[in-house]
Structure formats: C-alpha cells, structure tokens
Amino acid sequence: MQASGGRYGQLDARGFALRRLKLLGLAAFVSIALSLATLTNAWLLNELRSFDYLSTVGTPPLPDNSPIVVAIDEPSMAEIGRQWPWPRALHARLIEALRKAGARAIGMDVIFAEPSADPAHDDELENALGTDVVLAGDQTLVEAPQADQFVRTEPLARFTAKGARTGIASVNLGGDGTLRSIPDYPDGFAAALAGIAGTRTQPPPTDALIQVFGPARTYPTVSYYQALDPDNFLPEGTFRDRVVLVGLSLQNAPSIADGGADAFATSDTVHSNKLVSGVEMQATIYDNLAHDLFIQRGPRPVVIAAIAFAAILAAFAVLRTTGWRTLGYAIVALSLIVLASYVAMRLGHVFLSPLGPGLAFLAVAAGQAGLDYADERRRRREITRAFQQYLSPALVERLAKDPSHLKLGGERRTLSILFCDIRGFTTIAEEMKDDPERLTTLVNRLLTPLSDAVLKQGGTIDKYIGDCLMAFWNAPLDDPDHAVHAVRAALDMLAALARVNEELEAEAKRERGPAQTLRIGIGINTGECVVGNMGSHQRFDYSALGDAVNLASRLEGASKDYGISLLLGEETARLVEKAFPIAELDRITVKGRSTVSPVFTVAVGAKKEALERHRSFVQAKYDGVLQAHDVVFDQLQKALPPLARYYERERSRLDPPRHEPG
Q1: Which of 205, 284, 288, 418 sees the fewest Cβ atoms within 10 Å?
Q2: What pLDDT, in 10s, does the model give residues 640-654?
Q3: How far apart are CA 119 and CA 434, in angstroms?
C-alpha cells in the first residue's frame, strides 16, 4: 500500500509553502494573460459593454437648465405640409422666433453646405443668423487604397459671415456601432454651443465616455411647428434663457432593427433597444461638457494593477482550500468589484471596468479549484488502489470522499485485532502435497468468505500469512463499536465455515470420497497499537503493531488448547458483554508476556441461568475446589453445548494419573 501521509490530511508546512508558490505563479500568469488581453479590440468592446450596463444603473437626472430640443418630426411635417428638406426661409423664421422667445444660444444640427434652389431663401437665413447661432458641420474620414483623407464639410461662408459659428456635429461610433465617446474635435458642435452660451468647458480627455441620462426623448422636446409660434403652442417662458438645439428627431424613436437617419445606439440602448436622435445626443454631449459629467477611462497602469490585485486577492481566498466556500468568496468578490467600479464611476467619474478584475479573480479561484479537483481525484484513486484489497467498498468510498479520516505514517489508536487460522493445515497440506492446485483452491475457498465477513463488518484486512488472516477495526476510519464489529465478524466467520464444510461434505458424497472437514481458531483482543505504514522505503503496508496485536495472535493459538473456536481478550470481553453472552474461561500466561491474561469466549445461545452456573464453575476452578467427579461438569455440558470440549478438558486435568499394572 504505497501512499504518503502528509497529502491526506491538512497541508503540512512544506505542502502549504508549495501550494502558496503555485498560487503565486497562477496569479502572475492570469494577471499577465489578462493584461495582454486588454490590448485586443474584442476586450475593449466588452469593457465598453460593461460600461453600458453600469452607466445606466441609477442614471443621474438631467442637469438644471438642460437644452431644449426642437424636433423636426412627423407632426411638424404634417403641419407644415412639406417633406424634408424644408425651405431655408422657414429656418430663418424659427431662429427669429427662438431669439424673440429669449433663447440664450441656438444650435442648428442641420448642414447648409450648398446653396438652395431659391437664393431668396438663403438671403433670409443669412439675415436671421447671428453670434448666438451654431451651424452644424461634418468631418468624415474617407479611406482609399492610396491614402486616408479627412473631408470637412462646413456651412456656406455667407452664413458664418454674420457671426454664426460652425460646430462639427460628427460623432465617433464604437466597434459595435454604439455612440459612447465624446467627440474629440476642438470645434465640436456641443463645445461651440457651450462657448456662445457663456459656459466655459475644458477639453475632455481622449476617449472620454458619455454619461447618458435615459432613453430617447429624455430631454424636453417640442415640435418644430410649435417653436415657430411659441406664443400660441407653448407655455410662456419655454425658451427663456435656454440653450435650444434644432434637428431631426423622429417622434417614434426607431428601433435598432429598423435603423434610422441621424439616430444612434447609446449606452441606454441595452435596456430600451431604441435609437436616440443625433440632436438629442448633441444635447447630451453639451451637458457632459458643460457640467463635467463625462467619464474618463481608467489609465492602463491602473487597469493592470486592478487585475493583479484581484488575482492576488483570489489567491488568498483559496490559499487553504477550495470548495463551496470558494463560490461564496467569488460571489462576494465579484459584487465588491462591480460595486467599486460603480462608485468610482459615479463619484470619481472614472470608469475602471469590472471585467478584468472579475475575470482575474474567477480565473485564479476556478483554476485552483480545478487543480484541487484533479489532485483530489488523484488522491481518491491512490486511496482506492491502496485500500480496496483491505477494506469494504463502502469504507473505501467513504475514505476516498474524506481523506481527512486517514492519517498515514503511524499513529496510536485503540484497535480490536482479530487473528484467524485454519486448524490442522499442516496435515491438510501433507495430504495434498501431490495436488498443490487443489490445496490452493481449498484455502482460497475458505479465506474468501472469511474475508467477506471481515469486510462486511467494516474491518481492515491487514494481511494473509499462509492460511492465517489478520484484521483490525477502528483504523483507518473511526469505529466506536470496533470490538462489537470484530466479534460479530468472528461469528459470521464461524457460520461461513459451517457452510463451506456442508458444501465439502456434499461434494465428497457425490464423488464417493472422504470428506474434508475444516476447522478454524479465532483470537480477538482490544488495546492500544501503533497503526500506519510499516516496511521499507521501497515497499510498505498499512499495518498495526503492539502488545495488543501479539496477545490477539496468542489467543488464536490458545483456542486450540481449550477446544474453543473463539477466544477474547479481557478488554474485548468488557466492551461487548452487553451485546453478546460472554463466558470467562481461564487466566493464562501466554508466551512472551509475564502478566496473567483472562480469556473469554462467546457462549452463543446461552441462557442467563447457565451463564451464572458457569461463572460459579470458573470461580470454583480458581479456588481449586473442583473435583473430577462433580456433577457440574455433566450439567454444564448439557446447558452450554458450545463449551462441551472445554468442560471435558477441565475434567481431564483433574483426573488422577492412571498407572498400568506392572
């Protein structure tokens, strides 16, 4: 049985140090791998998707005095009676109406890059423009095999000559087509609008993210036709001292599947599945710049540090062991990582994706759990291989499931030890010297049911010594009733012997040959032993040593002298006297021991009165008052038939020696 002790219990100092070193290596590997993964486009896209979910949890309200959107929508088209594009004279009327209503700044998210068919309409628009108006421009990257080129489209020069400013309304979409980033144009549309509105803004960091405030139509929105005549259609003061943005905004926001002109997927689209109009996104960008609500991406060194910290935290969580607690640790850790990311975003306006640290924690914890599982499977296989020939399958499975029950290497335990030997085996072997195969078959035929009896009662088979079997109870698994189980196994062995003899007799009759009758002797003793790996470094067995083992062997040998198949030591008899009828037989001094040892047996089927008479008999024997002619011998032989040969032995010892006539 080749196994090493430290691996089956708690980790020793060397094992713990090795585990710590492996965990450190696993955490370093995970940290490096995930840090490299953060450089890929797929990773960056998933980080941005995690931002979508976090940034729309507990969405902040619109800031005070947010822009008002004038929507070029379906109701306006119906009221005006014309399809888009509308005459520029109509836009001139709108600007004048908004200015009259007290608008502080007006942003026209419409590009007037070409002269219209009616020059008079362009004249009206030119006359209406002023320093309080921002006109949209566009900047597009045109990719060609020869070179990449930015194409900038601006309003007609005549429209900006009166003081109107140009703002680039182009936006940058993510790899999944979602608008999340603040445009990095120095003269962006929202930034220009904030400038003429008197709001100082700082240039946002590169790749700053947009904080959205809700789905489509979150901003206060009025229809274009209403803004043309606010006195009749809108409450008084609707536009007073407000920033107004004018642009296409379909009243029923298009879905992602439908698509739409000048409409974009935003972070809120993950919830609403709706697109948001470009003019409303310009309003959102305006508030992000004007109120410093945009969210910065965490610096890469900080991201890598967060991943490494999470990996080390996971290593500490599974430093001792993994199991169901690991799942709890993972849930708590992931919750804290997400919470920390959310708090940093809300309070510090910095986005550190929980994706990297979360995966780092899971990878280390799951990786170590996988290693532990593989190690556990290996340990179970080792335990199963080591003990399947010595323990019952149920005990092997129990030991494999919980190796903590096993302490290999040597420990002190109180064991119940059983020795069983085939009586007269030398004679049987002599008779079968010319047929060794038959002898082997006969021995195995008996040892198999005897071994089964041991395993059935949860015993550990220590070894086979020729025709002798040694077993013990209460190791490697605890067995509080080890003595009872040992005695019960012995009785089962005697019953199995009777069945084997019946089979042999029946076979002899069929073959018309002499019947082979087998007999066994069993000795059981209970006491403290040393149990564990015994042998050399190259080969060893799980075995027991100690004085209690020697006495059990001597009891087995003494059973032949008493004519009794089963002898028990004093401690075994004390432990089982409530479960079996116990009868004391003698006090003997066995070879190798100087102390007197009481011996007992199990009087199967004995009645209480018969046991009382037997006790009186044994006491009379100790007192030396028995006589060979006492009737008590005959009475007890009839009352306790299993002890008949014992009584005959005791009577013969009292008979005076007979002298032959000379």
Answers
A1: 205
A2: 998 999 999 999 988
A3: 130
